Amino acid sequence: MSTNPIKIDAIINGETYRTEKQEPRENPAHPDEIVGYAPINTMEDTIKAIDVAHETFTTWRETPIDERVERMRSAIQKIKNNTPEIAELLSREHGKALYDSEGEIGVSLMWMEYACDNVKEVLKDEVQDHDNGKTILAKDAIGVVSAITPWNYPISLSTIKVAPALLAGNTMVLKPSPLAPLAVSKVIELIANEFPPGVLNMVHGEAEVGVELTSNPKVAKIAFTGGTETAKHIMKSAADTIKHMTLELGGNDAAIVLSDFDVNDDRAMRRLVISNFLTAGQICMIAKRIYVDQSIYEQFVEKYIEAANKWIRVGDPFDKNVTVGPVNNQKQVKYVQSLIDDAEGNGAKVVKLGKILDQNLFEQGYFMQPTVVLGADQKDPIVVEEQFGPTVPILPFENDKHAIKLANDSIFGLTSSVWGKEEHAIEVSKHIQAGTTMINTAAVQGLDVRFPFGGVKQSGMGREYGKEGILAYTDTHVINVPENLDLPYIPE
Ligand code: NAD
Fold first, then answer.
1. Structural domain count of the chain
2. Which residues are annotated as active site (predicted)?
3. Could you tell me if residue 467 is inside a domain?
4. Are residues 228 and 92 in the same domain?
5. Is the dihedral of CA 69, 71, 76, 81 positive or negative?
6. Same structural domain for residues 194 and 55?
7. Does the beta carbon of 388 lie inside 6 Å of ligand 1?
8. What are phi and psi of 51, to 5 degrees?
9. d(CA 291, CA 407)
10. 248, 385, 386, 464: which one is catalytic?
11. Percent of the chain, pLDDT > 90?
């Protein structure tokens, strides 16, 4: 494993570009190790990248779809060939366990392949013959897409945008998060190299670059994944030039455990634990509040703690026994700890879960011991806010109606899950306000790239994945060919 700090570049018009200003990115498991440096691009760099994408759009949108698919398929092959090194780099800069990094790349490839396999069918003209001639519904590319992505799943949340946007004939400027920019930059470079210069560009930086990407008049669409507060800034920034938008935002996903859930079903309990603590809880669609029918609450808590103690093994992301790595950054550790402290201060009981495999390492890095919080109130910040870390509150409910009320009592509506007998769980799921509800599983375990994903309420707008995730990068262009060309009510 190479431990020399790596440097990454911006990509503008097919050329790599190294800036003067560079930000170090430390390894969250060993914060004294610098994994690499991310460039900080200027506003001028960003404008240049947008200009290039804008100029390239005219030719790229006319490029035959077979050629676009062929180029994307060779990019997929390049990523496959480089997966071990990319996964290793992702674990070093992000902190997620190696199996988790490999899983993220696997999902990215699955989606890119789905997009290649389906784009021709999804984008083909729909011709409708009717009583007044015919109408063709064509799917046009939109233009320059600004893609802005977060640190928690940097590769999958970038490729989820890059693949459909480019396949549909758009050009793009992508900005990854400065908190995990290294592995995703390698992936973007591999993809960009398979396309004509200017089709896929990448700049780095924080809000200054982000504001240009979301306000520049040459940008036609914003594809953003990140926090709800950032999305509010983006909507304001984009308002003057009325941009198309897909927003994938925060979640505070409820898991409802019904009275007929079998607390002795070890596999189901393991799935629930994973859906709380995978990637140290730093997933938008992780189950962040568990509501349990009061008739089984006591037994549930006992069995849940037992299952969590078995599955959670905290340590170095490269240790094969480790299931939970460190939190990505110190700011996040402090935030999650403040929610736990607040709940404890209000009288809740905090139970530590799992094993710490290396106490020395644990004390050096941005590690947190996973916890479950018992006795919190529905109004406590640990229940109301998106924790985005390795802790979860468990609360009892009186009956199904009460559970639905508690689950819907949130500004968010990304995913949710219902656990119990299938029919009963499906019935309850229909009353939950969420983009996706999973039955007897949750989080990425229930994700299927063939179907649309996205949030309701303040968890976002628009959908990624599935056919909708490709159509999101098109406008419907109606070509009307009427038989009766003159309107009868207009006087001669
Ligand atoms: P964030 O909102 O802080 O940052 C996301 C991106 O926006 C980064 O690239 C950041 O540099 C950029 N940015 C910051 N200020 C900006 C501005 N003013 N204009 C334009 N861009 C700006 O989010 P984060 O901390 O990186 O990620 C965590 C959040 O993302 C959580 O809320 C999580 O739930 C959410 N998320 C949602 C999904 C989903 O699919 N719904 C998936 C993953 C993460």
1. 2
2. 248
3. yes
4. yes
5. positive
6. yes
7. yes
8. -60, -45
9. 8
10. 248
11. 96
Q: Examine the residue annotation and report whether 55 is marked as an active-site residue of this protein.
A: no
pTM of the predicted structure, to 2 decimals: 0.97
- Considering the domain boundaries, does residue 489 fall inside one? no
Q: Is the CB of residue 48 below 6 angstroms from any atom belonging to ligand 1?
A: no
Phi, psi of 81 (to 5 degrees): -60, -25
Ligand 1 mutation target, pool 148, 203, 414, 456, most atoms within 8 A of CB: 148
Q: Does ligand 1 lie within 6 Å of residue 151's CB atom?
A: yes
Question: What gap in Å lies between CA 72 and CA 357, rounded to an integer?
Answer: 41
Q: Please indicate, yes or no, whether residues 241 and 278 belong to a single structural domain of this protein.
A: no
Tokens of 371: 């916890």
Residue 266, both tokens? 């070890």
Q: Are residues 377 and 289 in the same domain?
A: yes
In total, the chain counts a number of residues equal to 492
Of 13, 396, 7, 305, the closest CA to residue 171 belongs to: 13
Mutation probe of ligand 1 site: the residue of 149, 225, 248 with most atoms within 8 A of C-beta:
225
- Measured from the CB, is residue 148 less than 6 Å from ligand 1? yes
Ligand 1 nearest-atom number relative to CA 228: 32
Residues 187 and 236 in one domain: yes
Rounded CA gap, 97 and 76, in Å? Answer: 23
Closest CA to 175 of 198, 208, 142: 208
Shortest-distance atom of ligand 1 to CA 213: 20
Mutate to test the pocket of ligand 1, among 40, 174, 177, 412 (most ligand atoms within 8 A of CB): 177
pLDDT tens digit sequence for 395-412 = 999 999 999 999 999 999
The range of the structural domain enclosing residue 270 comes to 253-446
447 CB under 6 A from ligand 1?
A: no
Q: Domain check: are 162 and 48 in the same one?
A: yes
3-state SS assignment for residue 139: strand
120-171: per-residue pLDDT in tens?
999 999 999 999 999 999 999 999 999 999 999 999 999 999 999 999 999 9
